[in-house]
Write a structure and sequence with these properties.
Strand content: 5-15%
Number of strands: 4
Radius of gyration: 21 Å
Order of helices and strands: HHHHHEHEEEHH
Largest sheet: 2 strands, parallel
Shape: flat
Distance between the termini: 25 Å
Helix content: 25-40%
């Protein structure tokens, strides 16, 4: 839930509902707490490619014996209500896929091609504290590092701002403009106009969650 806008804005309300724990709160929270069905579509061509990248480039180090990792993940998921068995499924994939070590993994590329790197300051998956190292690297002509103050993990579709009375995603606008004209000046003025997380839920709770009142104040 922390990963994506606008769902990351629901966390304060969900904590409040967990503590209050009324009958209506339980009805709202149950679908989120219920563990997702086990198993992944292993016939999908993209799935092994995705897991291969994650297991080899983003997984924890140093490697642990699979039995030790299973025990560790059992303890973690046993105390995590919203994660389901995703981490254990990931570990099962990593145990099956071939491993490799990229000798250039710790080195920044040197290139003069146009680049656009967009980062969310609130992204827990790829933290901004790590990504900011790119600021000193991506400084050539037509190269851009853009950080969104309220962005999470979904920059292109999670950076809303008010554009002529219409909600538009700034990240998507920047991406489209850059792809269409990589060598053109990039107008990033919408970045500082992006809207903060909507903790009230007024902008999204009905559409995304099917409820009118995110906090359930009328249910007390």
């Amino acid at each position: 839930m922390l990963y994506y806008s606008p769902l990351h804005a629901t966390i304060p309300a969900f904590i409040y509902r967990l503590q209050r724990c009324s009958e209506s709160d339980r009805e709202i929270l149950e679908p989120f707490i219920a563990r997702p069905p086990n198993g992944t579509d292993k016939t999908s061509i993209g799935q092994p490619k995705f897991y291969s990248w994650v297991c080899n480039e983003s997984y924890w180090q140093p490697e642990a014996e699979n039995e030790q990792m299973d025990d560790f993940l059992e303890q973690v998921t046993g105390h995590t209500q919203f994660a389901g068995d995703w981490a254990k499924e990931m570990n099962a994939w990593c145990d099956q896929l071939p491993s490799y070590h990229d000798v250039d993994a710790e080195r920044f590329p040197q290139t003069d091609v146009p680049l656009l790197i967009m980062q969310g300051a609130l992204d827990p998956a790829t933290p901004a504290s790590y990504a900011r190292a790119w600021q000193s690297i991506v400084n050539g002509p037509h190269q851009h590092y853009v950080e969104f103050p309220y962005g999470a993990h979904n920059i292109t579709l999670g950076t809303p701002y008010l554009n002529n009375n219409t909600i538009t995603d700034c990240g998507l606008q920047l991406f489209v403009n850059f792809v269409q004209s990589p060598a053109a000046p990039l107008d990033t003025s919408c970045v500082n106009a992006t809207l903060p997380p909507d903790f009230s839920g007024e902008r999204f709770s009905t559409q995304h969650l099917g409820i009118k009142d995110l906090w359930g104040m009328d249910e007390r």
